[in-house]
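TA notes, week 10

Several of you asked for a full example with nothing omitted. So below is the full record: C-alpha cells for the whole chain, then the designed sequence directly under it. When grading your own attempts, check the secondary structure regions first.
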C-alpha cells in the first residue's frame, strides 16, 4: 500500500502484477455488477461482504461488455457457486477479463484503514513478492488522477440502445414503452442499466462517444432531431476532462436540456465554474440515505464516487438531494436552466431502486 502496509494473501482470477487505487464497497449483493461497472476502472475494490463468488456470474447482470476494475479484494472467495442463473464461476469471469482476485485477507482491517487514512494507491502481484521491488513499481506508476480512463471505457462508435429494464419476476427484459422523446447519451463509462431505465421511462436513446462535438448536438436540438442530452457516469478525476468540459459549456450556453449522473453531475458543476473536490474515501455501496429536499422523503441509494461538487454551487443551483451520512450534495437543479443532475445512482444495479423516478423527471423536463 501507499502508506507502507505490506500484506500477503491468496489469489484467484488473473495472475499478474497490477497498480491501482484501493477503495471499499459496502454493498451486500451485486459483485458482478460492481466489477463490470466502468466507473471502477483504475481501482481495486475491497468488498465488505465476507462471502463473494457464491452465486457465480451470468450474462444478464453485466453492466458493460467486460470487467473494468483492476482487481477485487475479498475475505472469502467461494469457488463452489450455486444459482440457477449462473453460467460460470467468478474465478473464470476474472480470468476471461484479465482481472486480479485477492482473497483470504482481512477486509475489515483494510476497510478501517481506508476509512481512517483515505483511499490510496496500491500494487498487487502474483509474480513479485519482494517488498522493495513492489515499492519501486508502485512509486514509478501513474496515480489514478493522472490517467484519462474515459478514453479506455467510452464507446468508439455511436449505437442505439433498445432494451428496457430486466424483470426479476419473469426473468426477461420488459417490453419498452412507446418513446415520447429522443436523447443522446454521452458515454463516459455508462452502465447498461442506466440506459435500460431511460428506455423504460419512454425515451429513445442513442449512445455516442466521449469525443462528441457540441455544435453537432446543438444543431440536432435546434432542428428537433433530439430533445436533450444525458451525461453518464464514468471513472477517474473529472478535472482531467478539459475537452469534455469545453463542449459541455457550449451545450449549457445553448440551453440544451441536460441530465447528469455521477461523473456527469460533476462535469456539469465544473462546466459552470465550480470545481469538484476529492472525498477522503469516497462513497461506494448500496445503503446510503439521501434526503429529497423537495419531498422530505429519505431514499436509500446506491453510490460510487470519489469526487463531490462544492457547497458554494448553491450560488447558481438549488440543492435537490443531500447525503445524510456526511451532508454532501447529491442532487442539483440549475437556476433558470433546463439542467439537473444527481451524484448517486438512481438505476441501482446493485442496490435499491427508490430513486428510479428521476428518469421520469428527465422525460418531464425535456417534454416541457
Amino acid at each position: 500500500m501507499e502508506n507502507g502496509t505490506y500484506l500477503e494473501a491468496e489469489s484467484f482470477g488473473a495472475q499478474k502484477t497490477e497498480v491501482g487505487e484501493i477503495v471499499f464497497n459496502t454493498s451486500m449483493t451485486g459483485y458482478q455488477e460492481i466489477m463490470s461497472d466502468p466507473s471502477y476502472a483504475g481501482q481495486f475494490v475491497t468488498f465488505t461482504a465476507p462471502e463473494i463468488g457464491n452465486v457465480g456470474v451470468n450474462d444478464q447482470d453485466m453492466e458493460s461488455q467486460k470487467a473494468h476494475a483492476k482487481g477485487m479484494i475479498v475475505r472469502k472467495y467461494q469457488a463452489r457457486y450455486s444459482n440457477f442463473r449462473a453460467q460460470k464461476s467468478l474465478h473464470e469471469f476474472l480470468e476471461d477479463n484479465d482481472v486480479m482476485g485477492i482473497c483470504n485477507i482481512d477486509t475489515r482491517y483494510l476497510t478501517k484503514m481506508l476509512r481512517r487514512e483515505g483511499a490510496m494507491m496500491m500494487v498487487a502481484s502474483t509474480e513479485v513478492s519482494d517488498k522493495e521491488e513492489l515499492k519501486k513499481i508502485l512509486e514509478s506508476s501513474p496515480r489514478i488522477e493522472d490517467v484519462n480512463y474515459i478514453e479506455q471505457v467510452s464507446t468508439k462508435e455511436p449505437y442505439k440502445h433498445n432494451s428496457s429494464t430486466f424483470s426479476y419476476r419473469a426473468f426477461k427484459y420488459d417490453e419498452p414503452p412507446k418513446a415520447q422523446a429522443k436523447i443522446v447519451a454521452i458515454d463516459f463509462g455508462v452502465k447498461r442499466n442506466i440506459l435500460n431505465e431511460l428506455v423504460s421511462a419512454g425515451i429513445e436513446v442513442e449512445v455516442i462517444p466521449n469525443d462528441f462535438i457540441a455544435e453537432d448536438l446543438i444543431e440536432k436540438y435546434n432542428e428537433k432531431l433530439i430533445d436533450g442530452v444525458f451525461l453518464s457516469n464514468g471513472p477517474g478525476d473529472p478535472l482531467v476532462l478539459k475537452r469534455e468540459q469545453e463542449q459541455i459549456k457550449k451545450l449549457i450556453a445553448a440551453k440544451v436540456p441536460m441530465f447528469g449522473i455521477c461523473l456527469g453531475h460533476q462535469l456539469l458543476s465544473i462546466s459552470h465554474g465550480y470545481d469538484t473536490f476529492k472525498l477522503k474515501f469516497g462513497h461506494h455501496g448500496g445503503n446510503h440515505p439521501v434526503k429529497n429536499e423537495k419531498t422530505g422523503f429519505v431514499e436509500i441509494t446506491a453510490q460510487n464516487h470519489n469526487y463531490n461538487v462544492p457547497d458554494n454551487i448553491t450560488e447558481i443551483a438549488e440543492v435537490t438531494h443531500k447525503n445524510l451520512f456526511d451532508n454532501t450534495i447529491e442532487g442539483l437543479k440549475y437556476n433558470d436552466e433546463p439542467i439537473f443532475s444527481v451524484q448517486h445512482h438512481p438505476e441501482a444495479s446493485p442496490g435499491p431502486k427508490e430513486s428510479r423516478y428521476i428518469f421520469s423527471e428527465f422525460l418531464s423536463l425535456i417534454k416541457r
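The radius of gyration is 20 Å. Use that as a sanity check on your answer.
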